[in-house]
């Protein structure tokens, strides 16, 4: 669970500003991965957990050519994709997988999934099941 008491250790950071930024970004990414299923995971909550400003978090991601929101969306979609690619999870409802991945809106999830992977979650699941039967 994401909380404002989450901290990070700097013991492995280089004593440079660039090193601290890299370590901080890594900690934020780990925080996102640890809280992926939280639908209210925001840049503000991640910043508060790291005791930095939301703008600082945004700048860290901008330096990598992305945004906090794009990173979260990408990780959530990848999580769902892994679940739909596992034939053992074929009975899990698409809505349940979407909720597990942190999506609160099933329509948005389906659109984002199709945009990212070129197929719907049910198409991927059906293809996975056909391949598993071979």
TrEMBL record:
InterPro entries: AraC_XylS_family_regulators, Homeodomain-like_sf, HTH_AraC, Tscrpt_reg_AraC-type_HTH. Residues 26-127 form the HTH araC/xylS-type domain. It comes from the Bacteria. Keywords: DNA-binding, Transcription, Transcription regulation. The keyword Signal does not apply. Pfam families: HTH_18. GO terms for molecular function: DNA-binding transcription factor activity; sequence-specific DNA binding. This is Helix-turn-helix transcriptional regulator. It comes from Phreatobacter stygius.
């Amino acid at each position: 669970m994401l909380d404002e008491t989450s901290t990070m250790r700097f013991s492995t950071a280089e004593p440079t500003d660039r090193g601290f930024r890299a370590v901080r970004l890594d900690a934020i990414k780990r925080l996102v991965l640890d809280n992926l299923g939280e639908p209210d995971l925001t840049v503000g909550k991640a910043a508060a957990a790291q005791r930095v400003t939301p703008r600082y978090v945004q700048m860290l991601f901008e330096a990598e050519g992305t945004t906090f929101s794009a990173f979260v969306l990408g990780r959530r979609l990848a999580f769902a994709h892994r679940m739909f690619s596992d034939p053992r999870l074929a009975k899990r409802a698409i809505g349940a997988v979407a909720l597990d991945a942190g999506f609160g809106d099933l329509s948005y999830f389906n659109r984002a999934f199709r945009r990212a992977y070129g197929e719907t979650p049910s198409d991927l699941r059906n293809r996975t099941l056909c391949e598993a039967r071979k």
